[in-house]
Amino acid sequence: MKPEIETSRKSTIISKLISTRIKLEELIELSPEEAAYWDKPGAVTNLPLKINTSYSRLIETHQKEGSVDGASPDPIRIQTVPTVHELNILPYETGDPLGEGYYTPETRLIHQYPDRILIKVTDRCAVYCRHCFRRSFAGGTAGDISASEIEHIADYLKGRPGVNEILLSGGDCLTLSDGKLASMMDSLADGQKERTFRLCTRIPVVAPSRITPELVSLLAVRKPVWVATQFNHPRELTFESRAAITRLLAGGIPVVNQAVLLRGVNDNVETLAELFTTLVAVGIKPYYLFQGDLAAGTSHLRVGLKRGLGIVKELRGRLSGLAMPVYAVDLPDGGGKMVLSEKDFLRDEPPEHSGGVGNPDGNAGSGGISGWRVFEGSDGRERFYPLENC
Ligand code: SF4
After folding, report:
1. Measured in angstroms, how far is the CA atom of residue 2 from the centroid of ligand 1?
2. Whose CB among 146, 161, 195, 289 lies 3.0–4.6 Å from 325's, allowing a Cys bridge?
3. Which atom of ligand 1 is nearest to the CA of 200?
């Protein structure tokens, strides 16, 4: 193991809302890759910088040696501090990597599967994650859902009794006020007791104090409600976040975790094994481990599919079924969710076969792609996912 060296130390106690380069530099000395981001014109139109006070406390204010491709080895910093690599958009990356636009019958509404809908209830988050697949929406100009938008979606639901699950997403749904959240849930539930709400939120991770007793009571009287959160590294399971989870569980709100496989953050067996076993101990079911989506400017954070499969294979040999999440990818171009395994795909194609999704000559990760894995989407059409060498 390489020795820890301190290359910069501003303070070990500074914590604050960080949304500008100046604020960021009050906390940490930027690495060359981080500094270069701010000097490029593309930075202004990219996903904004926002690290809230609570999560900024977890950033290590000194760098250690042993980084991946010269990037910071701090898993919190990698998830929150932009680098110049974000401005490198590969030909097969897009602003809508899941093809949600195909399934949007009403503003903010995504209806891809018959039994459930997803609503982008706000574009605001407590923290903007650099790996966000909805990064072209998050931190934008849409703001919170309006009363008339809620009404339109409630009307849409009236003719669709088969919809029994409503995913409140964004952005982060728990950045809405208690009052707005409650009235929206009541309009959408429309008196149907079997209609389940799934709240997709990183708030228990990044702003656990938002999980107040009042919020828990609000949710508890509107059950069935599930919380789907996103812990990506064991260091995120702080005393405060564990207490927030305990409050939710005590209120009868089950919590599941949807981790993202991220390069330099959790792309090794030890880290993921610790994350998943700790989640179970806290009372959270590890639900999904997501392969990175092909969101514009995120290739430096993705883990190659074959390497991901190798990591998951080892994890399966170590973890109980309770601790082991499902490894899955949302196929590009609206192909739907696909559970990933060594054998569940149609075939592999060489790199020069673009599969109609663009020129394969990108420099994904640290060395281009070795080909394409072809899957059958939920609509029966083929979808191509790159086999990146990283
Ligand atoms: S909290 Fe969720 S929606 Fe917001 S930036 Fe992070 S991953 Fe994206």
Report:
1. 33
2. 289
3. 2
How would you class 231 by CB atoms within 10 Å of its CB: exposed for 0-12, middle for 13-18, buried for 19 or more?
A: buried
Q: Scan for tokens 């093809």, then name that residue.
A: 99
Which of 139, 120, 180 lies closest to 52, judged by CA?
139
Domain ranges, ordered by start, for the chain: 21-87, 100-343
CB of 126 closer than 6 angstroms to any ligand 1 atom:
no
Confirm or reject: Cβ of 125 under 6 Å from ligand 1.
yes
> How much is the CA Rg of the chain, to the nearest whole Å?
21
- Taking only the tens of pLDDT, the chain with its 390 residues reads 333 333 333 433 344 799 999 999 999 999 999 999 999 988 888 999 999 999 999 999 776 554 544 445 899 999 999 999 999 999 999 999 999 999 999 999 999 999 999 999 999 999 999 999 999 999 999 999 999 999 999 999 998 999 999 999 999 999 999 999 999 999 999 888 889 999 999 999 999 999 999 999 999 999 999 999 999 999 999 999 999 999 999 999 999 999 999 999 999 999 999 999 999 999 999 999 999 999 999 999 999 999 999 999 999 999 999 999 999 999 999 999 999 999 999 999 999 876 555 444 445 555 689 999 999 999 999 999 999 999
CA of 268 to the centre of ligand 1 (A): 23
Q: How far apart are CA 1 and CA 346, in angstroms?
A: 41
CB of 388 closer than 6 A to ligand 1? no
- In short, whether 134's Cβ falls inside 6 Å of ligand 1 is yes
**Angle, to 10 degrees, between the axis of helix 147-158 and the axis of helix 178-189?**
20
Distance of CA 144 to the CA centre of its chain: 19
171 close to ligand 1 (CB < 6 Angstrom): yes
First to last CA, the chain: 21
CA-nearest residue for atom 8, ligand 1, is 132
Q: Is the CB of 200 under 6 A from ligand 1?
A: no
CATH class of 100-343: alpha beta
Q: Whose CA is nearest to atom 3 of ligand 1?
A: 171
Ligand 1 atom nearest 128 alpha carbon: 5
DSSP 51: B
